[in-house]
């Protein structure tokens, strides 16, 4: 009989405990309705140690209320993580509200990260982006963005850790973007998929749909890793990281571009130029490659070679003003030796004659860049440096009317 009495007492105790747990969960619900998130958290903490004694429906409610308590108010990144895990458990138990809440929480995390990034709180943005990745391990793009923010925050060790994780995951990042203009705001927005974009266009809420290719980010990742090691003056690791990336993606032109940039940062300009010339040979469609080769020839004062490559860039894209500005600078650099000789001449008849010859040569250089300057101003009319250079050229050529017109524009 004693055994039966003890068993009955134990059962009674367990029943009382379960009732108490339900009261605390219900109290948390009431606190949430009143907007008292601290009280809701307190009630849920009391209930949590004996959660196993509740039935599935009450457990589902517990996780839903916990998620809401931590997601609302002014949550920290850790609060959001706690809320997300609670939403996941409630959703796994079939709670539709929790599934919707989890999606909303993910969006809030991303928006909050964007806000942090815009405010230059790169560490805060990285924490939230990594939390977003943890919520959905298939969304590796957030791990990539987290690493980028860590680089901006100069948290290089952690950034490398994330970047190496991406390499281990085989992250590529290429794909397509589906965007359209929001009729109400006038802003172009990413709509995620072809299906979603088509649907939103049919609603007339969006217009001007566009599908664009997103290039692979493997080159960017390799470049980031190398940049970090170069910043730390660990050149051996930088080269090893780049070689490793190239071994797995030998045909990736982005990686070759990154390797060239790495050697350039290390001060090995000749090596960088050789790699870029290999890139240009394999992919002659990118004007930026030819422009960069031109810049490297300009650094070693091989002006003719520099001009050759700037012109190649402009043949591919006549609107590529960066190459045109560099071309103008390269052509004008030829006047330096002319001016030096002019300044060193004496006052003899022969010196005066030589001065006139050199002045004529200098003016021919000025005349040669006028078409380039006019085209550059046509493409970028608000670029003050281009307008000022053109104004000075016209002044030196004696075309004061044109010089005054540009002066007024400035």
TrEMBL record:
Keywords: Repeat, TPR repeat. InterPro entries: CellSynth/LPSAsmb/PSIAsmb, TPR-like_helical_dom_sf, TPR_rpt. TPR repeats lie at residues 219-252, 253-286, 287-320. The keyword Translocase does not apply. SMART domains: TPR. The keyword Aminoacyl-tRNA synthetase does not apply. PANTHER family: LIPOPOLYSACCHARIDE ASSEMBLY PROTEIN B (PTHR45586:SF1), TPR REPEAT-CONTAINING PROTEIN PA4667 (PTHR45586). This is Tetratricopeptide repeat protein. It comes from Christiangramia sediminicola.
